[in-house]
Amino acid sequence: MADKIKLYLAVIIVIVSLAAFYTYSEYSVLYRTIGLLVMCGIAVFIASKTEVGSGAISFLRLSVVEMKKVVWPNKKETTQTTLTVGVMVVIIGLLLWFFDQFIGWGVRILTGQG
Fold first, then answer.
1. Overall number of domains in the chain
2. Interatomic CA distance for residues 38 and 30, integer angstroms
């Protein structure tokens, strides 16, 4: 029950801060944006103290760990892959154009327009 209250409180804080952002338009956008970010930070902090929030934070931490394990391609591999994909797109495009022309030719003959 306490988790639900915390989550509702976090949602209410976000809604009130958004309403305040648009209500107080006479103040600078910079100040309103800083206030909005601070209030959203407080809402995230409150939500992180729930079971759902701690699970989400754990998931994000594990995602970062997994991203660090990824072996990213170097510039040469990226260039080669991009060129290969580009060539294949052109080849498939030409094949589809050829088949479209062939089918169009067949339809024109069948309908007596060719």
1. 2
2. 12
